[in-house]
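Why predict the complex rather than its parts? Because the way molecules touch one another can change local conformation, and only a joint prediction can capture that. The input here totals 453 residues.
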Amino acid sequence: MNTFKKNLFALLSLILGSVFALPIAASEVLPDMSVYHLEGEWTNHEGKSLSLQELSGKPVVAAMVYTSCIHTCSMMTSKVLEIQKQLPAHQQDKITYALITFDSKGDTVDALSDHKEKRKLDENWVLLRADDSNIRRLAGVLGVNYKEVGPGEFSHSNIISLLDKDGVLVTQINGLNKATTPITNKLESLL
Amino acid sequence: MKIYAAIAAASLTFSASSLQAIPEGMVKIDGGVFTPFFDKDKDGNNQVLNMDAFYLDKAPVTNLDYVKFVAENFKWSKSKVKGIFAEPSYLKHWSGDFSFSNNLAHKPVKNVSWFAATAFCENQNKQLPTMMQWEYVAAADETSKMATGTDTYRRKILDWYGQPSNGEVSDVMQGEKNVWGIYDLHGLHWEWNLDYNTALVTGESREDSKLNKNLFCGSGSLGAKDKLDYGAFMRFGYRSSLKGNYTVGNLGFRCAKKISLQ
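Output of the joint prediction:
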């Protein structure tokens, strides 16, 4: 291709790109196995509503928790913190750390915001809540089993998931006693 | 007199609005007490559940019902569905996005994932029945609401579970209805539940924070209320093996609906 053709091609792509960029639904460009195909409204710890797709662009380390629990969930937060701390400082900011609650009633925006403050989670963290239907769908795509065993008390799998920048599940660790290396090793290759 | 007429009119209006019409194709399931065989509280006692009343579809969703949904919600067609929501075998018994052989129209739809079944029900302002709702209704036979203890109930279900599932099933609502007026909970196929993913048996039991040991068929089963209800054990074992995007040849669904208080 000569330069003229190259330029013409670039120009055409630019025009076509800008014409077609809007009508193409975001779901069309996401990979088939992206978690971000899940529609539905979520709310973060600041009370801002967002779609899961707004997490795209960076790898995400995600865990499903509920913040009122005494034992396991705070350990889940600790485990994700451990992953963050293991990364070199310049990489820590290139990742989103997401905690998603099972507890649509107890984990209000205030409860999530308190948890973030109490655990000293930095600006790379996002804590999310939604209604039961959206929570169940997300648990479904992440393979997380859970059950409300009493008011505001949940049994659940202790799974931490790594999603790539398009929301495709890369790897998971299942269990608090597991090494974090499967996630930290993969993270390096995603950055 | 005028005052009485007004009161009568007001009370008529009141009773009319509090008596919500039963949605078409559904049956009202009265509330009641249910002791599921498998579920124990933290101290190992049987749980006695107070079930609220709800509506349940009389019959499983058929291929014809499902194709109407797909026609209006094209993202759930075979060619458009996302892999994260359904395996490649989604609707594999259909020849195209809207086509299947005529004799399938009134047979239960199968090869549908939990995500697809959930979307179908939500599209009708319904939801999948919970495991407890499903088991509560499935505990009935033709004459009794709580038949799980009887030999005939047990025998009928085990006879069906013992049959190979390779043949084509019959159309819906051909068998006997149970005492609630519900068809085909046993006998045609298995059905999705809303909370299919509550069973904390991952194969690596130590990894779960609070393992529901009662769902194991091994030692856990010794604690069950009714040791002879093998059918229910089989259903729980089956459910715990499912993932949300699985599409299976003998797994369909029906929908339930909350009864909203006016």
